[in-house]
Amino acid sequence: MTNQTVVHPMVKFQRQVSSLVKRQVVQPTDSLWKVAFLFGDEWSHWRKELEEFDFSLQDPIKDLLAVESWEEE
Q1: In whole angstroms, what is the distance from residue 67 CA to residue 9 CA?
Q2: Where are the domains of the chain?
Q3: pLDDT of residue 3
Q4: Which of 1, 45, 50, 55 sits a CA distance of 20 to 30 A from 11?
Q5: pLDDT of the residue at 24
Q6: DSSP assigned state of 59
Q7: 3 state DSSP class of 60
Q8: CB of 13 closer than 8 Å to CB of 66
Q9: Where would I find the H helices in 1-73?
Q10: Burial tier of 60 (Cβ tally within 10 Å: 0-12, 13-18, 19+)
Q11: Beta strands in 4-73 (DSSP E)
Q12: Confidence (pLDDT) at 49
């Protein structure tokens, strides 16, 4: 048996946004709404997820990237 860890969906989203920053598509100081255009049809899902974690679309991307754990209480 292999020991597999289930990764929270927000970790995947965070990695995708981090990749956008590394490629300089967006800046860490840009508002989260800027990534909405890049996620197209998936954006409504990610927006709901962000709101559940008390993010607003005006928050800077760097705040999203600073989250160390996405565990829900």
Answers
A1: 13
A2: 14-65
A3: 57
A4: 1
A5: 96
A6: S
A7: strand
A8: no
A9: 9-22, 33-39, 43-52, 61-65
A10: middle
A11: none
A12: 93
Residue count of the chain: 73
Tokens of 15: 């990695």
Q: What is the dihedral of CA 37, 39, 43, 46, to 10 degrees?
A: -130
Side chain identity at residue 15, one-letter code:
R
Q: Token pair for residue 27?
A: 């800046």
- Closest residue by Cα to residue 46 from 60, 64, 29, 28: 64
What is the pLDDT at residue 35? 92
Give the predicted TM-score (pTM) of the model.
0.86
CA distance from start to end of the chain: 29
The residue written with tokens 């600073």 in the block is 66
Are residues 62 and 71 in contact, defined by beta-carbon separation less than 8 angstroms? no
What are the C-alpha distances in Å from 72 to residues 14, 26, 32, 37, 56? Answer: 16, 27, 21, 27, 18
